[in-house]
Recover the amino acids of this structure.
């Protein structure tokens, strides 16, 4: 499952089978089939593959549906670790938010994903497996028949802390023989790992870069996001400018509004000074309160007032639609519940 088309072709021929078998198998793997379901290859070869490889390393353990149509998935991995993803239905199709690590080592104050630290990185085939599992669940196929058309790498984990596997996943999911999601419809969200942001700009990918900013002040940002002690806001802005220069793609800042912490007039003004005139968009997110910390979400009115200040200064900004609140929609919450219940 970690193989791209060429690698699979080499593998299949090294097992003494004809090259065209790789096409059949690649297609079946991306459709979400287990080897036992691949009836277009011989039983003997199926059994041989089954004894050596893992066709589908990710299984849906549980799914929850919100009143607003958002769905939350709990996935089981082969080593019994669990990860989660969120499916959002938009007018044009489904967007899937997926995890890149089991747990996370960023320990952002508002987030439930890092409560137990990092357990391990996901392999490229496991990140891909999340998409394949949900796409099959929705009755989708590959290529034009896919149901998932948009991916956000914004679930649990820090994608740039699992850099090589994440990049390989992006190439796998956008391969023309597979599900083939356009890179323009893939967004990667980072807490701001500056050297990796520079590396990403040289990968020749056309994905969208999103950065979790959460404060315009380094000192205050460090209190919300420990990683801010290592990478300063100015360095992040340089990395974003470089990304724009290399890819021509505008970047996005995420800003979780936390009541009294980062949502005052002073913060709005500092954001304007920092981001005014840059080719960026600001996504304001109303905090999804989690019981593991005391941070609070302001009112909707507070959020729209903050937005108004940014817009008046000419910044491009939006308040993100609230989704799936009734089903533990925030990062890491569902896995956290599962771990508590199964302890
Ligand atoms: N590590 C990456 C990607 C995962 S977190 C990053 O930091 O960007 C992605 C986003 O999830 C964060 O920016 C934040 O906007 C959101 N998030 C996490 N916990 C949240 C919560 N409790 N409420 C609202 N948004 C949350």
């Amino acid at each position: 499952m970690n193989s791209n088309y060429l690698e699979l072709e080499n593998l299949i021929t090294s097992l003494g089978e004809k090259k065209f078998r790789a096409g059949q198998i690649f297609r079946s793997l991306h459709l979400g089939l287990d080897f036992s379901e691949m009836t277009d290859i011989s039983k003997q070869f199926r059994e041989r593959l089954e004894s050596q490889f893992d066709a589908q390393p990710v299984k849906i353990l549980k799914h929850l549906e919100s009143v607003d149509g958002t769905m939350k998935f709990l996935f089981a991995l082969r080593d019994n670790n669990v990860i989660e993803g969120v499916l959002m239905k938009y007018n044009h199709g489904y967007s899937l938010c997926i995890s890149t690590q089991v747990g996370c080592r960023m320990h952002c104050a508002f987030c439930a994903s890092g409560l137990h630290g990092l357990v391990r990185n996901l392999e490229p085939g496991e990140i891909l497996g999340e998409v394949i599992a949900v796409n099959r669940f929705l009755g989708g196929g590959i290529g034009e028949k896919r149901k998932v058309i948009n991916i956000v790498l914004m679930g649990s984990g820090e994608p740039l802390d699992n850099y090589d596997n994440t990049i390989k996943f992006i190439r796998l999911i956008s391969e023309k023989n597979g599900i083939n999601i356009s890179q323009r419809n893939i967004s990667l969200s980072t807490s701001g790992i500056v050297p990796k942001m520079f590396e990403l700009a040289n990968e020749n990918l056309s994905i969208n870069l999103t950065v979790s900013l959460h404060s315009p002040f380094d000192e205050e940002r460090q209190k919300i996001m420990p990683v801010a002690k290592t990478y300063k806001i100015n360095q992040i802005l340089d990395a974003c400018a470089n990304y724009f220069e290399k890819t021509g793609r505008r970047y996005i800042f995420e800003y979780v509004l936390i009541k009294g912490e980062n949502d005052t007039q002073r913060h709005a003004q500092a954001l304007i000074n920092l981001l005014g005139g840059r080719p960026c968009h600001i996504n304001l997110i109303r905090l999804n309160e989690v019981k593991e910390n005391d941070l609070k979400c302001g009112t909707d009115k507070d959020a729209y007032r903050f937005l108004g200040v940014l817009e008046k200064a000419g910044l491009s900004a939006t308040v993100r639609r609230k989704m799936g609140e009734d089903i533990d929609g925030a990062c890491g919450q569902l896995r956290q519940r599962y771990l508590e219940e199964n302890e």
Summary: The CA atoms of residues 42 and 163 lie 37 Å apart. The pocket of S-adenosyl-L-homocysteine is lined by residues 106, 110-111, 154, 158, 189-191, 212, 254, 256, 285, 287-288, 290, 330-331 (CB under 6 Å). The mean pLDDT is 94.
